[in-house]
Protein backbone atom coordinates (compact mmCIF):
# COMPACT_ATOMS: atom_id res chain seq x y z
CA UNK A 1 0.00 0.00 0.00
CA UNK A 2 1.39 3.39 -1.00
CA UNK A 3 1.94 5.96 1.76
CA UNK A 4 1.70 9.64 0.91
CA UNK A 5 4.84 11.52 2.03
CA UNK A 6 5.48 15.26 2.29
CA UNK A 7 8.77 16.84 1.24
CA UNK A 8 9.82 19.44 3.83
CA UNK A 9 12.75 21.87 3.71
CA UNK A 10 14.17 22.85 7.10
CA UNK A 11 16.55 25.83 7.10
CA UNK A 12 18.95 25.40 10.00
CA UNK A 13 19.74 28.42 12.20
CA UNK A 14 23.14 30.07 11.71
CA UNK A 15 25.67 29.31 9.02
CA UNK A 16 29.01 27.60 8.64
CA UNK A 17 31.80 29.32 6.68
CA UNK A 18 29.20 31.71 5.32
CA UNK A 19 27.08 28.89 3.90
CA UNK A 20 23.46 28.51 5.03
CA UNK A 21 22.63 24.90 5.91
CA UNK A 22 19.34 23.13 5.36
CA UNK A 23 17.74 19.71 5.63
CA UNK A 24 15.49 18.18 3.00
CA UNK A 25 13.27 15.56 4.62
CA UNK A 26 10.50 13.21 3.62
CA UNK A 27 7.85 13.38 6.32
CA UNK A 28 5.23 10.65 6.86
CA UNK A 29 1.66 11.55 7.85
CA UNK A 30 1.25 12.58 11.49
CA UNK A 31 -1.86 11.12 13.17
CA UNK A 32 -4.27 13.36 14.98
CA UNK A 33 -4.12 17.10 15.34
CA UNK A 34 -0.38 17.32 15.95
CA UNK A 35 2.51 19.41 14.72
CA UNK A 36 6.13 18.48 14.12
CA UNK A 37 9.15 19.68 16.07
CA UNK A 38 12.72 19.40 14.80
CA UNK A 39 15.16 18.72 17.62
CA UNK A 40 18.52 20.05 16.49
CA UNK A 41 21.90 18.56 17.30
CA UNK A 42 25.40 19.82 16.51
CA UNK A 43 25.55 17.32 13.64
CA UNK A 44 22.64 17.82 11.17
CA UNK A 45 22.65 14.10 10.43
CA UNK A 46 21.66 13.47 14.05
CA UNK A 47 18.67 15.84 14.04
CA UNK A 48 15.44 14.16 15.08
CA UNK A 49 12.04 14.90 13.59
CA UNK A 50 9.37 13.73 16.00
CA UNK A 51 5.64 14.20 16.56
CA UNK A 52 5.05 16.82 19.22
CA UNK A 53 1.78 16.88 21.09
CA UNK A 54 1.03 20.23 22.68
CA UNK A 55 -1.35 21.33 25.40
CA UNK A 56 -4.11 18.85 26.28
CA UNK A 57 -2.86 16.41 23.62
CA UNK A 58 0.43 15.88 25.41
CA UNK A 59 -0.41 16.86 28.99
CA UNK A 60 -3.44 15.38 30.72
CA UNK A 61 -4.34 17.39 33.80
CA UNK A 62 -4.89 15.35 36.97
CA UNK A 63 -5.65 17.97 39.60
CA UNK A 64 -5.06 21.56 40.66
CA UNK A 65 -1.99 22.12 42.86
CA UNK A 66 -2.04 25.84 43.55
CA UNK A 67 -3.19 29.18 42.20
CA UNK A 68 -1.61 32.62 42.44
CA UNK A 69 -2.19 36.10 41.14
CA UNK A 70 -0.88 35.30 37.69
CA UNK A 71 -1.27 31.57 37.01
CA UNK A 72 -2.65 28.24 38.14
CA UNK A 73 -0.46 25.18 38.55
CA UNK A 74 -1.77 21.70 37.83
CA UNK A 75 -0.43 18.21 38.30
CA UNK A 76 -0.40 16.71 34.81
CA UNK A 77 0.89 13.61 33.09
CA UNK A 78 3.29 13.92 30.17
CA UNK A 79 2.00 11.27 27.74
CA UNK A 80 5.15 11.46 25.59
CA UNK A 81 7.72 10.82 28.31
CA UNK A 82 5.40 9.14 30.80
CA UNK A 83 6.16 11.30 33.82
CA UNK A 84 4.28 13.69 36.09
CA UNK A 85 4.84 17.41 35.55
CA UNK A 86 3.72 20.64 37.14
CA UNK A 87 1.85 22.51 34.40
CA UNK A 88 1.68 26.26 34.92
CA UNK A 89 -0.98 28.12 32.92
CA UNK A 90 -1.68 31.86 32.87
CA UNK A 91 -5.08 33.05 34.04
CA UNK A 92 -7.35 33.75 31.04
CA UNK A 93 -7.98 37.37 32.01
CA UNK A 94 -4.23 38.12 31.79
CA UNK A 95 -3.71 36.77 28.28
CA UNK A 96 -4.30 40.18 26.71
CA UNK A 97 -1.83 41.96 28.99
CA UNK A 98 1.61 42.30 27.34
CA UNK A 99 3.35 42.77 30.70
CA UNK A 100 1.94 39.52 32.05
CA UNK A 101 2.95 37.60 28.93
CA UNK A 102 6.43 39.09 29.08
CA UNK A 103 6.70 38.04 32.71
CA UNK A 104 5.67 34.48 31.83
CA UNK A 105 8.23 34.25 29.03
CA UNK A 106 10.81 35.76 31.38
CA UNK A 107 10.24 32.92 33.84
CA UNK A 108 10.75 30.34 31.10
CA UNK A 109 14.02 31.95 29.98
CA UNK A 110 15.32 32.39 33.53
CA UNK A 111 14.65 28.80 34.66
CA UNK A 112 15.83 27.32 31.35
CA UNK A 113 19.24 28.95 31.88
CA UNK A 114 19.67 27.34 35.31
CA UNK A 115 20.54 23.78 36.26
CA UNK A 116 20.88 23.06 39.97
CA UNK A 117 19.52 20.57 42.49
CA UNK A 118 17.90 23.37 44.49
CA UNK A 119 16.17 25.09 41.55
CA UNK A 120 13.01 23.81 39.92
CA UNK A 121 13.60 22.24 36.49
CA UNK A 122 11.88 23.45 33.33
CA UNK A 123 10.92 20.72 30.85
CA UNK A 124 8.87 22.56 28.24
CA UNK A 125 7.47 25.95 27.27
CA UNK A 126 4.86 26.47 24.60
CA UNK A 127 1.34 27.46 23.67
CA UNK A 128 -1.89 25.58 23.20
CA UNK A 129 -4.36 27.48 21.01
CA UNK A 130 -2.69 30.74 22.07
CA UNK A 131 -2.57 29.89 25.78
CA UNK A 132 1.04 29.76 27.04
CA UNK A 133 2.15 27.13 29.52
CA UNK A 134 5.23 25.94 31.40
CA UNK A 135 5.85 22.26 32.09
CA UNK A 136 8.14 21.89 35.09
CA UNK A 137 9.46 19.21 37.39
CA UNK A 138 6.68 18.06 39.72
CA UNK A 139 7.96 18.15 43.29
CA UNK A 140 5.87 16.09 45.69
CA UNK A 141 6.36 18.25 48.74
CA UNK A 142 5.23 21.35 50.63
CA UNK A 143 6.23 24.99 50.76
CA UNK A 144 7.97 26.32 53.87
CA UNK A 145 4.67 27.92 54.83
CA UNK A 146 3.04 24.54 55.60
CA UNK A 147 5.43 23.24 58.32
CA UNK A 148 5.70 26.76 59.74
CA UNK A 149 1.94 26.89 60.27
CA UNK A 150 1.78 23.29 61.52
CA UNK A 151 4.53 23.96 64.08
CA UNK A 152 2.76 26.99 65.54
CA UNK A 153 4.13 29.75 63.32
CA UNK A 154 7.88 29.05 63.51
CA UNK A 155 10.41 26.53 62.19
CA UNK A 156 13.03 24.98 64.53
CA UNK A 157 16.45 26.61 64.16
CA UNK A 158 18.42 23.61 62.85
CA UNK A 159 15.82 22.66 60.25
CA UNK A 160 15.62 26.33 59.25
CA UNK A 161 19.41 26.53 58.93
CA UNK A 162 19.40 23.50 56.62
CA UNK A 163 16.64 25.06 54.50
CA UNK A 164 18.66 28.27 54.43
CA UNK A 165 21.86 26.54 53.26
CA UNK A 166 20.09 24.73 50.43
CA UNK A 167 18.27 27.89 49.37
CA UNK A 168 21.56 29.78 49.37
CA UNK A 169 23.14 27.14 47.13
CA UNK A 170 20.32 27.52 44.64
CA UNK A 171 20.51 31.31 44.77
CA UNK A 172 24.28 31.14 44.34
CA UNK A 173 23.83 29.15 41.11
CA UNK A 174 21.24 31.67 39.88
CA UNK A 175 23.45 34.64 40.75
CA UNK A 176 26.43 33.02 39.01
CA UNK A 177 24.27 32.94 35.86
CA UNK A 178 23.34 36.59 36.31
CA UNK A 179 19.80 35.90 37.55
CA UNK A 180 18.31 37.63 40.61
CA UNK A 181 15.08 35.95 41.82
CA UNK A 182 13.47 39.07 43.38
CA UNK A 183 10.66 37.16 45.11
CA UNK A 184 12.22 34.90 47.74
CA UNK A 185 9.51 33.99 50.28
CA UNK A 186 8.19 30.85 52.05
CA UNK A 187 5.60 30.13 49.36
CA UNK A 188 8.37 29.95 46.73
CA UNK A 189 10.52 27.46 48.64
CA UNK A 190 9.37 23.84 48.25
CA UNK A 191 10.68 20.97 50.38
CA UNK A 192 10.14 17.38 49.23
CA UNK A 193 9.82 14.28 51.42
CA UNK A 194 13.59 13.62 51.24
CA UNK A 195 14.35 17.07 52.63
CA UNK A 196 15.55 18.61 49.35
CA UNK A 197 14.74 22.28 48.77
CA UNK A 198 13.63 23.68 45.39
CA UNK A 199 13.39 27.39 44.61
CA UNK A 200 10.44 28.05 42.33
CA UNK A 201 8.54 30.91 40.65
CA UNK A 202 11.13 32.91 38.72
CA UNK A 203 8.33 34.96 37.18
CA UNK A 204 9.86 38.31 38.12
CA UNK A 205 13.48 37.23 37.99
CA UNK A 206 15.85 40.03 37.00
CA UNK A 207 18.76 39.46 34.63
CA UNK A 208 21.41 41.62 36.21
CA UNK A 209 23.06 44.26 34.02
CA UNK A 210 20.29 43.91 31.44
CA UNK A 211 16.88 45.49 30.89
CA UNK A 212 14.64 45.39 33.94
CA UNK A 213 11.24 43.70 33.84
CA UNK A 214 8.54 46.20 34.82
CA UNK A 215 4.78 46.22 34.99
CA UNK A 216 2.77 49.37 34.50
CA UNK A 217 1.70 51.10 37.70
CA UNK A 218 3.16 48.54 40.09
CA UNK A 219 6.40 47.42 41.67
CA UNK A 220 7.41 43.78 41.42
CA UNK A 221 7.73 41.44 44.37
CA UNK A 222 5.72 40.62 47.48
CA UNK A 223 5.64 43.83 49.58
CA UNK A 224 6.66 42.20 52.86
CA UNK A 225 9.76 40.60 51.32
CA UNK A 226 11.16 43.24 48.95
CA UNK A 227 14.49 44.90 49.63
CA UNK A 228 14.96 48.65 50.23
CA UNK A 229 16.56 49.00 46.79
CA UNK A 230 13.55 47.31 45.18
CA UNK A 231 11.25 49.71 47.01
CA UNK A 232 13.35 52.72 45.94
CA UNK A 233 13.72 51.62 42.34
CA UNK A 234 17.51 51.49 42.66
CA UNK A 235 19.67 49.12 40.55
CA UNK A 236 19.50 45.56 41.85
CA UNK A 237 22.27 43.12 42.63
CA UNK A 238 22.33 39.59 44.04
CA UNK A 239 22.20 41.15 47.52
CA UNK A 240 18.50 41.92 47.07
CA UNK A 241 17.78 38.17 47.33
CA UNK A 242 19.83 38.05 50.55
CA UNK A 243 17.55 40.70 52.08
CA UNK A 244 14.41 38.80 51.08
CA UNK A 245 15.92 35.61 52.50
CA UNK A 246 16.58 37.51 55.73
CA UNK A 247 12.90 38.47 55.92
CA UNK A 248 11.94 34.81 55.36
CA UNK A 249 14.33 33.62 58.10
CA UNK A 250 13.09 36.30 60.53
CA UNK A 251 9.49 35.20 59.97
CA UNK A 252 10.36 31.52 60.41
CA UNK A 253 12.31 32.30 63.62
CA UNK A 254 9.77 34.51 65.32
CA UNK A 255 6.42 33.83 63.68
CA UNK A 256 6.05 37.48 62.64
CA UNK A 257 7.27 39.59 59.75
CA UNK A 258 10.00 42.15 60.47
CA UNK A 259 8.23 44.75 58.34
CA UNK A 260 4.46 44.68 58.50
CA UNK A 261 1.77 47.33 58.23
CA UNK A 262 -1.82 47.88 57.15
CA UNK A 263 -1.13 48.41 53.43
CA UNK A 264 1.67 47.93 50.86
CA UNK A 265 2.85 51.54 50.93
CA UNK A 266 3.10 51.50 54.72
CA UNK A 267 5.09 48.26 54.50
CA UNK A 268 7.51 49.84 52.02
CA UNK A 269 7.90 52.83 54.31
CA UNK A 270 8.74 50.49 57.20
CA UNK A 271 11.33 48.65 55.08
CA UNK A 272 12.99 51.93 54.17
CA UNK A 273 13.07 53.44 57.67
CA UNK A 274 12.70 50.77 60.37
CA UNK A 275 15.37 48.55 61.95
CA UNK A 276 13.71 45.33 63.16
CA UNK A 277 14.24 43.95 66.66
CA UNK A 278 16.73 41.01 66.63
CA UNK A 279 14.87 37.67 66.36
CA UNK A 280 16.25 36.27 69.65
CA UNK A 281 14.69 39.24 71.47
CA UNK A 282 11.27 38.00 70.36
CA UNK A 283 11.77 34.24 70.54
CA UNK A 284 13.70 32.41 73.24
CA UNK A 285 14.10 29.46 70.85
CA UNK A 286 16.15 31.48 68.34
CA UNK A 287 19.89 30.93 68.71
CA UNK A 288 21.62 34.27 69.28
CA UNK A 289 24.31 33.58 66.67
CA UNK A 290 21.67 32.74 64.07
CA UNK A 291 19.74 35.84 65.10
CA UNK A 292 22.83 37.95 64.39
CA UNK A 293 23.17 36.27 61.00
CA UNK A 294 19.55 37.13 60.11
CA UNK A 295 20.06 40.72 61.22
CA UNK A 296 23.13 40.99 58.96
CA UNK A 297 21.05 39.80 55.99
CA UNK A 298 18.57 42.60 56.71
CA UNK A 299 21.12 45.42 56.49
CA UNK A 300 19.62 48.42 54.68
CA UNK A 301 22.82 48.98 52.69
CA UNK A 302 23.36 46.11 50.19
CA UNK A 303 27.14 46.47 50.57
CA UNK A 304 26.81 45.57 54.27
CA UNK A 305 24.97 42.30 53.60
CA UNK A 306 26.91 39.05 53.17
CA UNK A 307 26.86 37.35 49.78
CA UNK A 308 25.75 33.74 49.31
CA UNK A 309 29.25 32.30 49.84
CA UNK A 310 29.73 34.31 53.04
CA UNK A 311 26.30 33.24 54.28
CA UNK A 312 27.03 29.53 53.73
CA UNK A 313 30.44 29.90 55.42
CA UNK A 314 28.86 31.64 58.43
CA UNK A 315 26.25 28.89 58.84
CA UNK A 316 28.90 26.16 58.56
CA UNK A 317 30.94 27.92 61.24
CA UNK A 318 27.93 28.17 63.57
CA UNK A 319 27.20 24.47 63.29
CA UNK A 320 30.84 23.55 63.83
CA UNK A 321 31.09 25.67 66.98
CA UNK A 322 27.87 24.21 68.36
CA UNK A 323 28.69 20.65 67.37
CA UNK A 324 25.68 20.26 65.07
CA UNK A 325 25.58 18.61 61.68
CA UNK A 326 23.13 19.82 59.11
CA UNK A 327 21.56 17.55 56.50
CA UNK A 328 18.42 16.86 54.50
CA UNK A 329 17.18 14.56 57.27
CA UNK A 330 16.32 17.61 59.38
CA UNK A 331 13.94 18.93 56.74
CA UNK A 332 12.60 15.45 55.95
CA UNK A 333 11.67 15.07 59.63
CA UNK A 334 10.04 18.50 59.60
CA UNK A 335 7.91 17.64 56.57
CA UNK A 336 6.95 14.25 58.00
CA UNK A 337 6.06 15.45 61.48
CA UNK A 338 6.08 19.25 61.84
CA UNK A 339 4.34 19.17 65.22
CA UNK A 340 6.78 16.61 66.71
CA UNK A 341 10.12 17.73 65.28
CA UNK A 342 10.48 20.99 67.28
CA UNK A 343 10.44 19.09 70.61
CA UNK A 344 13.19 16.73 69.48
CA UNK A 345 15.31 19.61 68.21
CA UNK A 346 14.96 21.61 71.41
CA UNK A 347 16.26 18.60 73.33
CA UNK A 348 19.20 18.28 70.92
CA UNK A 349 20.04 21.98 71.18
CA UNK A 350 19.80 21.92 74.98
CA UNK A 351 22.10 18.89 75.24
CA UNK A 352 24.62 20.47 72.87
CA UNK A 353 24.70 23.74 74.79
CA UNK A 354 25.15 21.90 78.09
CA UNK A 355 28.01 19.92 76.55
CA UNK A 356 29.69 23.09 75.28
CA UNK A 357 29.24 24.78 78.64
CA UNK A 358 30.83 21.78 80.38
CA UNK A 359 33.82 21.88 78.03
CA UNK A 360 34.14 25.61 78.62
CA UNK A 361 34.08 25.12 82.40
CA UNK A 362 36.75 22.38 82.29
CA UNK A 363 39.16 24.40 80.16
CA UNK A 364 42.62 25.08 81.72
CA UNK A 365 42.70 27.92 84.19
CA UNK A 366 45.35 29.64 82.08
CA UNK A 367 42.77 30.07 79.37
CA UNK A 368 40.92 33.12 80.68
CA UNK A 369 37.22 33.35 79.67
CA UNK A 370 37.82 36.73 78.06
CA UNK A 371 40.20 35.14 75.57
CA UNK A 372 37.79 32.40 74.50
CA UNK A 373 35.61 32.74 71.49
CA UNK A 374 32.07 33.65 72.43
CA UNK A 375 29.79 30.70 71.78
CA UNK A 376 26.18 30.75 70.64
CA UNK A 377 23.60 30.72 73.41
Structure, described:
The protein is of the alpha+beta class and 377 residues long. The chain folds into three domains: 6-52, no CATH class; 56-137, Phosphorylase Kinase, domain 1, CATH 3.30.200.20; 142-336, Transferase(Phosphotransferase) domain 1 (Transferase(Phosphotransferase), domain 1), CATH 1.10.510.10. 36% of the residues lie in helices and 22% in strands. It has helices at 55-58, 98-112, 145-150, 157-176, 228-232, 239-254, 264-273, 279-282, 288-297, 308-322, 328-336, 341-361, and strands spanning 6-16, 19-27, 35-39, 48-52, 59-67, 71-78, 83-90, 122-128, 131-137, 141-143, 179-180, 189-192, 197-199, 206-207. The strands form five sheets. A five-stranded antiparallel sheet has the order 5-6-7-9-8. It has a three-stranded antiparallel sheet with strand order 10-12-13. It has a two-stranded antiparallel ribbon with strand order 1-2. Strand 5 (59-67) and strand 6 form a beta hairpin. Helix 4 packs antiparallel against helix 10 (308-322), helix 4 (157-176) packs across helix 11 (328-336) and helix 6 (239-254) packs antiparallel against helix 9 (288-297). The chain is globular, with a radius of gyration of 25 Å. The termini are far apart.
Amino acid sequence: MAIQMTLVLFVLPGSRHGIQRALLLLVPPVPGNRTLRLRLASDPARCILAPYMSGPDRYSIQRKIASGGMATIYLANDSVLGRPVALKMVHPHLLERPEAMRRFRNEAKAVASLAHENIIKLYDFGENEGDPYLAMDFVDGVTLTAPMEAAGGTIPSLALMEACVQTLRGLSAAHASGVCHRDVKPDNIIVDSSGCVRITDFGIAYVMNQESLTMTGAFLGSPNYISPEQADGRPLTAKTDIFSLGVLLYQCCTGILPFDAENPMAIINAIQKRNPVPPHSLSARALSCFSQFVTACLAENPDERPDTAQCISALDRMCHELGFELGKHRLASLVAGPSIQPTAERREVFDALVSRATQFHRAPASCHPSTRRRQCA
